[in-house]
Amino acid sequence: MFPSNLSLKTLAAVSLLVTSCYQPKAPVVEEKQPVAFLPSNVATYPAVIEPVTESIRLTGQIEYNPNQVVHYTSLVTGVITRSHVSLGDRVTKGQVLAEMRSTELSELSSQRRVLDSQLAVAQRKLAAAQSMFDDRIASEKDLAEAKSEVEVVRSEIDKIAANLSLYNASSEKGVFQIKAPVSGYVVENNVSEGTQVGSSESGLFTISDLSEVWVTANIYAVDLSFVTKGMKAIIKSKAYPGEFFEGTISDISQVFDPQERVLKARIRMPNKDLKLKPGLTIEAVVTRHSSEMAVGIPANALILHNNENYVLIRKEDNSLEPRKVTPDATDNDRIFFKSGIAAGEHVVVRDQLLLFSQVLDTEK
Q1: If one looks up domain 67-207 in CATH, what number appears?
Q2: Is the confidence at residue 8, as pLDDT, over 80?
Q3: CATH H-level, domain 33-65+209-364: superfamily
Q4: Which residues contact residue 65 at a Cβ distance below 8 angstroms, ignoring those fewer than 6 apart?
Q5: Whole-prediction pTM
Q6: CA 302 – CA 325 distance, rounded (Å)
């Protein structure tokens, strides 16, 4: 028995509905959008043609300029009763550094007071002799003897004053004041209250004008042919990461240091901001320029990927091109190419690893 026309139509509709429910859908393909890089977010360096350079690093340290250092050494014995300065203090010429009691200097002061009294007596005698000579009572010989006595006493006083000046001290308040012979910074201080001072001891104070310092760099035998007088040097220190100071090698010792077995290179450096402190360990980078020319870029622009070297080039349309390269020469912070990079092309030098990965993902 066959179904009616209505039943057949209903069955066909249900079949069509069921078939449509199980019909496979076409996969949705998400189109990858290219990575957009704003020029302000991409730091680049223009490749330039320049001489191929070679650099080496020399270790060393900051030292005082010996031409601007004064070591104060006491010529007498005594006891420090008071100290007015500390290590690192700025002092001016004539400023009181410390006060000291000394039997030797006390004796000199006592002799000075006695001579002052003798001079006063001798001067009164001279005045009396001059008056009597004018009145024709005293002879010319008596007047000459009175004048001679005054001159002898004055000579002794001048000698005492010279000795006190030699000690760079003056007696005040019953003590002797040690005064700064020059202006500068106290870079060594060996005294404190109660310190016993002997005439044979090392310096009490060392004062240096730190406006100019010396950088002493060590040259090993293998680098003798590389380093020459007059070469520019870049001074770096871990104390100031990211900063560097420029100087020139002014002298190279001709004798090896017997302890370190190195030659000493001297670099005179201005020290305007007083950042170069004596005793500070440094690294001096010296560079030699050759006559050979090549395209140079910063060394940090190089990207190592799958054991191959790449750089990221920013094109004129601000797109980024990963380019495989082969360096021909490498310096301390420079890489040189004879081919592969043209002068004027802009190489990415910041966040290049991240950008390189993003570009590769976009190209997949």
Answers
A1: 2.40.50.100
A2: no
A3: Efflux pump adaptor protein, beta barrel domain (2.40.30.170)
A4: 208, 209, 212, 213, 214, 268
A5: 0.57
A6: 9
